[in-house]
Design goal:
Layout: E1 3-8, H1 15-24, E2 33-40, E3 42-49, H2 52-59, E4 68-74, E5 89-90, E6 96-101, H3 107-116, H4 128-139, H5 144-154, E7 159-165, E8 171-177, E9 182-186, E10 189-193, E11 205-208, E12 214-218, E13 222-225, E14 231-232, E15 237-238, H6 254-260, H7 262-270, H8 273-283, E16 288-293, H9 295-312, E17 316-320, E18 335-341, H10 347-354, E19 360-365, H11 371-375, E20 378-381, H12 394-410, H13 414-420, H14 423-432, H15 434-444, E21 449-454, H16 458-473, E22 476-481, E23 499-503, H17 509-521, E24 526-531, H18 535-540, E25 543-547, H19 556-574
Parallel strand pairs: 16-17, 16-18, 18-19, 19-20, 21-22, 21-23, 23-24, 24-25
Antiparallel strand pairs: 1-4, 1-10, 2-3, 2-4, 5-6, 6-7, 7-8, 8-12, 9-10, 9-11, 11-15, 12-13, 13-14
The structure holds fructose -6-phosphate.
Fructose -6-phosphate binds next to helix 9.
Length: about 600
């Protein structure tokens, strides 16, 4: 889940500052080590374990010669974070430098063979076999691109690889299989990166690279070769993301900025209505829906289940992608199989979608050039814009927005579509009143654990709010359907267990209130997210986050979650953790 970058600049710019700039935009993919290699008469390398800013302070990463090179940010998978395990990896003669994202599953046997042939390894990584294999094949007479081709023929597992060689100056080669890599070009300069946000400051003219294609970039041209060495023609797609979208724009963290982006990102997603209608008309009759997803996207899918079943009356099954192989997936051509993923690259979700034939497949993704769009028969783009914080926020609300639009269209529910247009304003209200949530964070800073409860439409919101809290604040947070409390979890409730209750107005209000009474009777501290005019709930709560009374339980999943994203964010800030870089996590889970 690392991030990789490459650039070949055809003007007077040095490569290192550009590589560093791009790598900073990929920190959400990994931040335990960073490294750059550039070429100027020889290969120059700077790398170390640590956050980019720390390593940069020590090594001055931008100060490297040459106008082309490669870079890497690491999320350790094989070999712990250390200078030696940081990329780029070289061969022992330092003629080849390689950056890699993915996992080579047969690296041990390849390494043993290379060692028996006299190669000396200095790292514990799987990647180092790649630099040695390229060196070996170049020594045997292959040029750089064919050495890379011969190398990948031996590799099992996933990879995106970018390499340079001192034996063939002014050339970058790259390839990919099951790990992302996109290409960009502008004014004769070329860029490569794991994801579009890395290069959007330099170009929005993006090209995809298909599995096992090899791209060869020289000062003169960019050529893509297929597995049989045929040259492939590819037209760049102009992506509608702007450089400002990947900046913090004055916010302290990407997460806070992205939470504040939500009125606009929901508005943009709502504009997709005609495209979504066209897709659904084209698909035709749908008897049942199955959605596969992981993590936050799974919670968006669960929200979708409640909304679609209630508004369109179509049975909707939601399966964790990692469990998909273990469920009985009976699907025919009248089943719509949806893959929900902000990145479109999540390995488990791709595997689930690939494992089944028969149903129509629909990808709901935030990244236009992604693997999932290639697998699916149809794609709906969530228009959240680039999301750089590891914790998903605006991509979640964009996914839930799409779920509403699908439900409203399949259920011919014009009224719901009209109601959705008010959502951005309701979110704006919450953002404008976030001081209350900020001050509440001080009270819960020392909580060891938190319970979230919600019923019906609000149950997936409780799950997502608890996930946000645990992943960035490291507070143990659990979410339950409120009706489940008395079937076990109530045993955990005492005065040390704050219970955060999501209780919008609607048919489930009174039953949720009953659950709230049950926890209150066990001396729990009651925090509620409820309507501004819900005096009854406010009277029973120690703390309340108040939401516009027009937001009923059907719309609540899109609005109430924003308050709880803010609560997780501010508690994390009080605890002095960096919400953009939660420990042990990376944003795009390609393994
Ligand atoms: C949590 C988070 C993850 C992702 C999950 C799936 O904030 O971001 O739980 O939702 O890894 O990722 P995508 O949506 O890219 O498939």
């Amino acid at each position: 889940m690392c991030g990789i970058v490459g650039c070949m600049l055809n003007d007077n710019r040095k490569a290192a500052p550009v590589l560093l700039d791009c790598a900073k935009k990929l920190e959400y993919r990994g931040y335990d080590s960073v490294g750059l290699a550039t070429y100027d008469e020889r290969i120059h390398v700077k790398k170390d374990e640590g956050y980019i800013e720390t390593v940069d302070e020590a090594l001055n990463l931008a100060d490297m010669p040459g106008n082309y090179g490669i870079a890497h940010v690491r999320w350790a998978s094989v070999g712990k974070p250390s200078k030696l395990n940081s990329h780029p990896h070289l061969d022992e003669k330092e003629t080849v430098a390689v950056v890699h994202n993915g996992t080579i599953t047969n690296y041990s046997e390849l390494k043993d063979k290379l060692i028996s042939e006299g190669h000396k390894f200095i790292s514990q990584t799987d990647t180092e076999v790649i630099s040695h294999l390229i060196e070996k094949f170049m020594d045997e007479g292959s040029d750089l691109e064919h050495a890379l081709r011969r190398c990948i023929e031996l590799l099992d597992g996933s990879y995106a690889i970018v390499a340079i060689s001192a034996k063939e100056p002014n050339k970058i080669v790259a390839t990919r299989k099951d790990s992302p890599l996109v290409l960009g070009q502008k004014d004769g300069s070329y860029y490569l990166a794991s994801d579009i946000p890395a290069m959007i400051k330099y170009t929005n003219r993006i090209m995809e690279l298909n599995k096992k294609e090899i791209v060869v970039i020289t000062k003169e041209k960019l050529e893509i070769h297929d597995e049989h060495d045929n040259i492939m023609f590819r037209t760049p797609i102009e992506i509608d993301w702007t450089p400002e979208m990947v900046e913090k724009n004055g916010y302290e963290h990407y997460m806070l900025k992205e939470i504040h982006d939500q009125p606009e990102s929901v508005r943009r997603t709502l504009l997709q209505i005609d495209e979504i209608k066209e897709i659904l008309d084209d698909i035709g009759e749908i008897e049942k829906i199955c959605i596969v997803a992981c993590g936050t996207s799974y919670h968006a899918a669960l929200s979708g289940k409640y909304i679609i079943e209630s508004e369109a009356r179509i049975p909707t099954n939601v399966v964790l992608a990692s469990e998909f192989a273990h469920s009985l997936n009976i699907m025919d051509e009248k089943t719509l199989l949806i893959g929900m993923s902000q990145s479109g690259e999540t390995a488990d979700t791709l595997k689930a979608l690939n494992s089944i034939e028969g149903p129509t497949k629909l990808a709901i993704v935030n990244v236009e050039i992604s693997e999932m769009t290639k697998i699916a028969d149809y794609t709906i783009l969530t228009k959240a814009g680039p999301e750089l914080s590891v914790a998903a926020t605006k991509t979640y609300t964009a996914q839930v927005t799409v779920m509403y639009m699908i439900a409203a269209l399949l259920g011919n529910n014009e009224e719901l579509l009209d109601k959705l247009n008010k959502v951005p304003e309701y979110i704006e209200d919450i953002l404008e009143n976030s001081e209350i949530i900020k001050s509440m964070a001080k009270t819960y800073l020392y909580a060891n654990e938190l319970f979230y409860i919600g019923k019906g439409f609000s149950y997936p919101t409780a799950l997502e709010a608890a996930l946000k809290m645990k992943e960035i604040s490291y507070i143990h947070a659990e979410a339950y359907a409120s009706g489940e409390l008395k079937h076990g979890p109530l045993a955990l409730i005492d005065n040390n267990m704050p219970v955060i209750t999501i209780i919008p107005p609607g048919k489930d209000h009174n039953l949720t209130l009953n659950s709230l009474e049950e926890v209150k009777a066990r001396n729990s501290r009651i925090v509620t997210v409820c309507s501004e005019d819900d005096d009854l709930v406010q009277d029973k709560s120690e703390e309340c986050i108040l939401i516009n009374p027009d937001v009923d339980e059907i719309l609540a999943p899109l609005v109430y979650i924003v308050a709880l994203q803010l609560l997780a964010y501010y508690i994390t800030i009080e605890k002095k953790h960096n919400p953009d870089r939660p420990r042990n996590l990376a944003k795009t889970v390609t393994v």
